[in-house]
Amino acid sequence: MKTTNFPHYFALIAIFLLFLSTPEIIIAQSKNSKVLSDSTYYTSGKDTIYIKPHKYPVFPGGEAELLNYVHKQIELTGYYREQDPIIGLVIVSFIINENGKVSNIKVERSVDTYTLDKLAVNIVAKMPVWESGENNNKKIKVRYFLPVRFNFR
User: Fold this and answer.
1) Of 58, 90, 112, 115, whose CB neighbour count within 10 A is largest?
2) How far apart are the first and last CA of the chain?
3) What is the pTM of this model?
4) 29, pLDDT greater than 60
Protein backbone atom coordinates (compact mmCIF):
# COMPACT_ATOMS: atom_id res chain seq x y z
CA MET A 1 0.00 0.00 0.00
CA LYS A 2 1.36 3.39 -0.97
CA THR A 3 1.02 6.43 1.24
CA THR A 4 0.51 9.99 0.13
CA ASN A 5 3.48 12.29 0.12
CA PHE A 6 3.05 14.97 2.81
CA PRO A 7 4.96 17.76 0.95
CA HIS A 8 2.28 17.73 -1.74
CA TYR A 9 -0.13 19.13 0.81
CA PHE A 10 2.00 22.16 1.56
CA ALA A 11 0.45 23.51 -1.62
CA LEU A 12 -2.74 23.76 0.44
CA ILE A 13 -1.26 26.70 2.31
CA ALA A 14 -0.72 28.72 -0.85
CA ILE A 15 -4.12 27.79 -2.21
CA PHE A 16 -5.78 28.57 1.12
CA LEU A 17 -4.43 32.12 0.90
CA LEU A 18 -6.02 32.45 -2.54
CA PHE A 19 -9.51 32.79 -1.12
CA LEU A 20 -8.46 35.70 1.10
CA SER A 21 -7.77 37.91 -1.89
CA THR A 22 -10.61 36.96 -4.25
CA PRO A 23 -13.93 36.22 -2.50
CA GLU A 24 -15.80 39.01 -4.26
CA ILE A 25 -14.81 37.66 -7.67
CA ILE A 26 -16.33 34.29 -6.87
CA ILE A 27 -19.45 35.85 -5.34
CA ALA A 28 -19.91 38.18 -8.31
CA GLN A 29 -20.23 35.07 -10.47
CA SER A 30 -22.82 33.49 -8.18
CA LYS A 31 -26.34 33.37 -9.55
CA ASN A 32 -29.30 34.61 -7.52
CA SER A 33 -27.23 36.89 -5.31
CA LYS A 34 -27.54 40.63 -5.13
CA VAL A 35 -24.59 42.64 -3.87
CA LEU A 36 -25.65 45.13 -1.21
CA SER A 37 -22.31 46.66 -0.30
CA ASP A 38 -18.63 45.83 -0.08
CA SER A 39 -19.22 43.61 2.93
CA THR A 40 -22.58 41.86 2.37
CA TYR A 41 -24.64 40.10 -0.21
CA TYR A 42 -28.30 39.29 -0.09
CA THR A 43 -29.58 35.82 -0.89
CA SER A 44 -33.06 34.84 0.21
CA GLY A 45 -35.03 37.94 1.00
CA LYS A 46 -34.41 37.81 4.74
CA ASP A 47 -30.84 36.64 5.35
CA THR A 48 -27.78 38.84 5.08
CA ILE A 49 -24.64 36.82 4.62
CA TYR A 50 -21.33 38.59 5.04
CA ILE A 51 -18.30 38.10 2.84
CA LYS A 52 -16.02 40.58 4.59
CA PRO A 53 -17.12 40.77 8.22
CA HIS A 54 -15.28 42.77 10.86
CA LYS A 55 -14.28 39.48 12.51
CA TYR A 56 -13.97 36.34 10.38
CA PRO A 57 -15.06 32.94 11.67
CA VAL A 58 -12.24 30.90 13.19
CA PHE A 59 -11.72 27.16 12.82
CA PRO A 60 -10.94 25.51 16.19
CA GLY A 61 -7.19 26.00 16.60
CA GLY A 62 -6.89 28.57 13.79
CA GLU A 63 -5.86 28.43 10.13
CA ALA A 64 -3.00 25.99 10.68
CA GLU A 65 -5.41 23.51 12.25
CA LEU A 66 -7.84 24.01 9.36
CA LEU A 67 -5.11 23.03 6.91
CA ASN A 68 -4.17 20.03 9.08
CA TYR A 69 -7.83 19.01 9.26
CA VAL A 70 -8.21 19.14 5.47
CA HIS A 71 -4.95 17.22 4.97
CA LYS A 72 -5.96 14.51 7.45
CA GLN A 73 -9.41 14.16 5.91
CA ILE A 74 -7.88 13.75 2.44
CA GLU A 75 -5.56 11.05 3.79
CA LEU A 76 -8.44 9.31 5.57
CA THR A 77 -10.36 8.95 2.33
CA GLY A 78 -7.73 6.46 1.23
CA TYR A 79 -8.35 7.65 -2.29
CA TYR A 80 -5.26 6.77 -4.27
CA ARG A 81 -4.77 5.09 -7.60
CA GLU A 82 -1.29 4.28 -8.77
CA GLN A 83 -2.27 3.98 -12.43
CA ASP A 84 -4.60 6.98 -12.48
CA PRO A 85 -3.01 10.10 -10.95
CA ILE A 86 -5.48 12.85 -10.14
CA ILE A 87 -4.48 16.44 -9.50
CA GLY A 88 -6.93 19.27 -9.07
CA LEU A 89 -8.26 22.20 -7.11
CA VAL A 90 -11.84 22.36 -5.87
CA ILE A 91 -13.06 25.62 -4.36
CA VAL A 92 -15.87 25.06 -1.91
CA SER A 93 -17.94 27.78 -0.29
CA PHE A 94 -20.13 27.38 2.75
CA ILE A 95 -21.94 29.46 5.33
CA ILE A 96 -20.83 29.52 8.93
CA ASN A 97 -23.92 30.54 10.86
CA GLU A 98 -24.27 32.51 14.08
CA ASN A 99 -23.72 29.32 16.09
CA GLY A 100 -20.57 28.37 14.18
CA LYS A 101 -22.17 25.49 12.28
CA VAL A 102 -21.40 24.86 8.62
CA SER A 103 -24.25 24.85 6.10
CA ASN A 104 -25.09 25.62 2.46
CA ILE A 105 -22.01 23.91 1.03
CA LYS A 106 -21.46 24.62 -2.66
CA VAL A 107 -18.75 23.77 -5.15
CA GLU A 108 -17.73 27.13 -6.63
CA ARG A 109 -15.00 25.73 -8.87
CA SER A 110 -15.04 22.14 -9.98
CA VAL A 111 -12.26 19.90 -11.19
CA ASP A 112 -14.67 18.22 -13.59
CA THR A 113 -14.20 15.11 -11.51
CA TYR A 114 -17.36 14.36 -9.59
CA THR A 115 -15.41 12.24 -7.12
CA LEU A 116 -13.11 15.10 -6.04
CA ASP A 117 -16.00 17.55 -5.78
CA LYS A 118 -17.86 15.09 -3.58
CA LEU A 119 -14.75 14.47 -1.44
CA ALA A 120 -14.28 18.23 -0.91
CA VAL A 121 -17.94 18.69 0.06
CA ASN A 122 -17.74 15.74 2.48
CA ILE A 123 -14.62 17.18 4.11
CA VAL A 124 -16.45 20.46 4.76
CA ALA A 125 -19.64 18.73 5.91
CA LYS A 126 -17.71 16.89 8.65
CA MET A 127 -16.12 20.06 10.07
CA PRO A 128 -16.50 20.79 13.76
CA VAL A 129 -18.24 23.91 15.05
CA TRP A 130 -16.33 27.13 14.33
CA GLU A 131 -16.09 30.32 16.36
CA SER A 132 -18.66 32.45 14.53
CA GLY A 133 -17.96 35.68 12.67
CA GLU A 134 -19.02 39.08 14.00
CA ASN A 135 -19.97 42.50 12.75
CA ASN A 136 -20.35 45.30 15.31
CA ASN A 137 -20.07 42.72 18.12
CA LYS A 138 -23.06 40.80 16.73
CA LYS A 139 -22.73 37.18 15.62
CA ILE A 140 -23.50 36.86 11.92
CA LYS A 141 -23.61 34.42 9.01
CA VAL A 142 -20.46 34.43 6.88
CA ARG A 143 -19.82 32.82 3.50
CA TYR A 144 -16.38 31.21 3.63
CA PHE A 145 -14.32 30.01 0.67
CA LEU A 146 -11.99 27.05 1.01
CA PRO A 147 -9.73 25.83 -1.77
CA VAL A 148 -9.02 22.10 -1.50
CA ARG A 149 -6.09 20.79 -3.54
CA PHE A 150 -5.93 17.11 -4.41
CA ASN A 151 -2.66 15.60 -5.56
CA PHE A 152 -2.96 11.84 -5.88
CA ARG A 153 0.04 10.51 -7.80
Assistant:
1) 90
2) 13
3) 0.71
4) no
